[in-house]
Every structure is written in C-alpha cells, then in structure tokens.
From TrEMBL:
InterPro entries: DNA-bd_dom_put_sf, MerR-type_HTH_dom
Stated name of the protein: MerR family transcriptional regulator
Organism domain of life: Bacteria
SUPFAM superfamilies from the UniProt entry: Putative DNA-binding domain
GO terms under biological process: regulation of DNA-templated transcription
Molecular function GO terms recorded: DNA binding
Residue span, HTH merR-type domain: 20-81
Source organism of the structure: Limosilactobacillus agrestis
Amino acid sequence: MDPLSEKIRKLIASKELKISMSEMARVTDVSTSQLRYWEKKGYIKSEQDEQNKNHYFTLPVMFQVFTIKDFLDQGYTLAMAVKKEHKRRELHQIFIRFIADCIMEVKQTGEKKGEINLGPLAEEPTKEVYAVIDGQQTSLHIRTRTMKD
C-alpha cells in the first residue's frame, strides 16, 4: 500500500479529525444551542480547548448528530432518536472497521474511473477482491494477487 493511502486509512480509523461547534451546526443543520443541550444531556461529547471555550467534535460524533437529527425529522422524540442512534452507531463502527481493514489501495485509472483494492480473499489468499469504478457504475472482481503484496 502506498504511504498516502496508509495515512488516509489511519486518519479515518482514528478520532483525529475534528470540527468546531459552529462548523458542526452548519454542516448538520442543528443549532449550536441544540448541540450544547445534547452535550449537557450526555447524548454527544465534544473536546474543549485549553481555555474550555471552544468545543470540537470528532467525525463519529458528526455522524451521531446527523443520525439523531434524521430521527427527529422523522417525528421521533429526542430520547427515542438518541436510542435509535445508539443502535445505528454499531453499523457505523462496522463500516469504519471495514474501511480501516479492507481498503488496501485506491488508484485512478482514467477520467472518472478508478480501482479500489479490497485485499485478499480469506478462503483463498492468492486471490484478491477489487472494485472498479467506471463513471456511474461500480463492479466487484477477483484476480490473482501480484508478488508486491
């Protein structure tokens, strides 16, 4: 795997990506006062700077906010939206684990075309799975692994 792909994988899997409360409000369309209330109730968590002034949120928390808001928009109460978000969070963790473990390489093969190496097959390690993205279509394929792996 090339060094940039490895850095991106580690960054996605880590909790190092952070956004400010005002950015969180702008991106998720949830007011800062609502975010503060949710944080006070323990529904979401932020990290604060040295002066305990500015709140910063990780990428997983941004997904939490999006999900809670979506359930609220569907008519659920805040308590029920948070409960449903907790269940949904498991799916997010599974997805992040997949990205961190299985995306070995991403490369561009043409204009709006690319390939994502998803690594070796568990049952047949001499073969690997890869996705081909060709404009608007994605397809999965299997091939024999090369010696560089």
